Amino acid sequence: MPAxxxxxxxxxxxxxYTQPSMRGNKEECMTAQSAIAADKGRISFNWIIDKxxxxxxxxxxxxxxxxxxxxxxxxxxxxxxxxxxxxGVIKIGGLxxxxxxxxxxxxxxxxxxxxxxxxxxxxxxxxxxxxxxIRRRELWLSWGWFFLGPVxxxxxxxxxxxxxxTGYQVPQGVxxxxxxxxxxxxxxxxxxxxxRQHWGFFMLYKRKNNDMDQRELAIDKWFFNLAFYTPLVxxxxxxxxxxxxxxxxxxxxTLHVAGYSVAGFVHRVAWFTFLGAIVAYxxxxxxxxxxxxxxxGPKLLFLLAVVPLHLLAFSNPWLAALMVPIVTVGHNIQxxxxxxxxxxxxxxxxxxxxxxxxxxxxxSRFWIYFGLGLLFTFALYRGPWIEWLQMTLGLNLDRSVxxxxxxxxxxxxxxxxxxxxxxxxxxxxxxxxxxxYLDSKIWRVGRDKSVARQLKVEx
Length: 459
Fold this sequence. Notes:
By secondary structure, this protein is mostly helical. Among the domains are: 1-40, no CATH class; 45-60 and 73-183 and 322-454, no CATH class. 65% of the residues lie in helices and 6% in strands.
């Protein structure tokens, strides 16, 4: 019997385990066997920053989404009209502030974390001369996304205008196709954007924990996409979809084949697919553990924090009505933390102090970075000032430019038109579109060695 028997690893295994000879002394055998036992079923915990920061900002940030979901469910239980009634009123001087879900969930998310995280991308690109030089084409193209919304909103009206000499008009019901298409595209891209960032953090944890076996990566991809997209399909085909406030009617429930509802069939398939993916992935992790390979602790904790949250957000019409802040707030917090980490590592480097003057100031103090984010929010994207601009300029657009188009749409009084307001509002959403587009370009860790270096995840 040889002194050491090497167990051949499976393809992709990083460690070949050894069995000690029984001929050695008892102490040596016990030590070697203990080492083997420690290896078997071992869980690695290599963090992007460190344990405390990762659990707080990257994994624990999902808890804010769970808090939002809890507030919504409490409101459904306590209030006759959960979206409009308040839990109570706070009196500050002469102000009376009703504690509604709009304030506690939507406004706190939109003003304090979501809009400022769009500013983070601007700070990380347009204020960085190196980024302006390397990504000049992408930065210029990003401004084009501001016009997508207005084009979609206006297209039915333009078609109507061209048809006018023929005596035909686009049916009134068709006139809303443009705005509905815009809303659907915006929401789907927003959700895709959140899921892609989750995938980015998922991959960072794989890199940090040397979890890059190609076979396991393929399984991770399949599970990840099924876990996040099948709940969306379940929601869109659910019996309560049309009861959800604020969602466009898709008409999927009206499609029938051989007397059976297409939506109902797809809903059941999506449910079984989701449950099957969960069971299969848990079984795969158990198989890895039983084979003596190392499990990736942070990766699994990350999935445990976000996958059930997304499923919950799509499981109830009241939760789905406020689904966006529920699933997005954790993403926003993650983004702020990783951009701050990137900025600190890159712009605070004393050797390059003269190269990044503006960016260095922005990332020198968190209150400066966050304060500029709030300034951007209220000056250019959200808030009372922006709402006033949208109302005023929107009505001015209706009166001065689009009145004829609006009247052809069946609206008789140009002073009451809202088409201009739709155009102005969809133009403002360009900030979000620009953010989604640039984000897809600037965080490619596998291709961009500079980003990998600043995030300290070099291969």
